[in-house]
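Much of our argument rests on the idea that a fold can be written as discrete symbols. Part of our work consisted of pairing the sequence of a single chain with a tokenised description of its backbone. No coordinates are needed to read the tokens, only the vocabulary itself. The record that follows shows the chain in one-letter code together with its fold in token form.
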Amino acid sequence: MLSLCGDPYPSRELNEHLLARRREPVVWSEPALRPEWLSAEAEARYIEQGFLVVPDVLSADEIAELNAAMATLRDELTSSDSALVLREPGSDDMLSFLDLPSASPLFARLARHPKLLAFARYVLGSEVYLHQSRLNYRAADTQEEFYWHSDFETWHTEDGMPAMRALSCSVLLTDNLAEHAPKLLIPGSHKTYVGCVDPASCPVTEDEAAHESHTMGQPSPEILSLLTHQAGDVTSATGLAGSVVFFDSNIQHRSADEPSEHSRANAFLVYNSVDNMLGEPANGLAPRPEHLAHRDNVDVLAPLD
């Protein structure tokens, strides 16, 4: 199938789930260009596991400013019908706000934070721009419905992103500890691409439904079991407010199953290489709007003065 369609990473127009070996490096730059604050050991962990938690990237004062800006946005947008606002299922509460720099100069500056840009430029081996950004807020005692997935599968299929030359960073605006139901990841899963079956193309059994195996872009329970077995276990990327979780575009991740009595929030920024600009989406899909995937208004990011 790979040779017939010419796409090394097909998905959704498949009769069965597909596993393909990653074709791109995880880090594109030579070690001599590594930022001084990034150790060789930390880089090796990122390459092997597909994610890295860096503590104390932002100061307490910076986090306080960002949280104040977040509170203002939530107050202003709670009653908005903007397409940029995503809400909790069955609720008017804001879950995410898309295209952060357009809403707040402070978050626009965050996207140009020297450490964030240094890591992105080093890992991707080029200048970078924001492919996507959003503010994520999970209120206490609520249930997020984000299942296991690889972001790259979505970006490649729905946005036409050619290669695994993008990375995400989650700037923790609040503590994300075990009691906050943090995001879950499968270490090492970034080394394997999973092409998925369109859930509309096959019947759903009760067992499959119970395992949420037919959500669009989600691997089957069997593949998730295989990836988890290879990893040894699922892990959570925990950290205190001010920490940053960098993670590869192809790592499998999801929200924790259980609700928490604590709220949590993060700013989610996706950096893409300028040498990995979006092409045509797969399977005849129409391009998604700019607030989900920048393709027409691309600004190469320069660090703060």
